[in-house]
Amino acid sequence: MNKSIKEQRVKDFLKDLASKSPTPGGGAVAAITGAIAASLVEMVCNLTIGKKDYLDVQNKVVTISKEAQCLSKELQNLADKDSKSFQNVIKAYKSGDKGKIKKTLIVATEVPEKTAKYCKKVQELAEIMVRIGNKNAYSDAMSAGHLAFAAMQSAQENIEINKRNLVLL
């Protein structure tokens, strides 16, 4: 993986994902899925802003749009951080140094914790947009919520495995 995940074409990312390499893996996918969900929320916002039937919610939708955009960027960055942190875990295990292993596992746990936190927020924003957003984009808002939930669950799996490995040290 030479380019950061967020700079790759989708087909290149999927090729890297399908390879024998352990990175990118589930944690990066969770973060990217969360970023996709946030971008869908932003799209629903953009399809709502300026529409006469939704004038009473304009300010709220503009705020949600900005928040979704920030969350998408943060989650894209977390995808790269997740891959890097797991590469560091692998190096630490190869070194056999328990102190290094512990430190890298702690970082490798913190990244999906942030991913899960941000995905929960994306899910909350999606739920709001399901209620107040452009009804023509209802399925998009619902899809964003489902994707955010799945990403949050995936991040949780990474948190649990890393914590389990910490206990085993």
Low-confidence stretches: none
Largest beta sheet, briefly?
A: none
Distance between the termini: 29 Å
Q: Could you tell me the strand content as a percent range?
A: under 5%
Q: How many helices in DSSP terms?
A: 5
Percent range for helical residues? Answer: over 70%
Categorize the overall geometry.
elongated
How big is the Rg? 18 Å
Quaternary structure type:
single chain
> Quick one: CATH superfamily?
Formiminotetrahydrofolate cyclodeaminase monomer, up-and-down helical bundle
- Mean pLDDT across the residues is 96
Task: Write down the CATH class.
Answer: Mainly Alpha
* Structural class by sheet pairing and helices: mainly alpha
Short characterization:
This protein has 169 residues and is mostly helical. The protein has five helices and no strands. It has a single domain, classed as Up-down Bundle (Four Helix Bundle (Hemerythrin (Met), subunit A)), CATH 1.20.120.
Explain what the structure shows.
The structure is a single chain. This protein has helices at residues 10-18, 26-48, 58-95, 98-132, 138-168. The chain has one domain: Four Helix Bundle (Hemerythrin (Met), subunit A), CATH 1.20.120. It has 169 residues and is mainly α. Helices cover 80% and strands 0% of the residues.
List the helices and strands and how they pair.
Blueprint: H1 10-18, H2 26-48, H3 58-95, H4 98-132, H5 138-168
Helix pairs in contact: 2-3, 2-4, 2-5, 3-4, 4-5
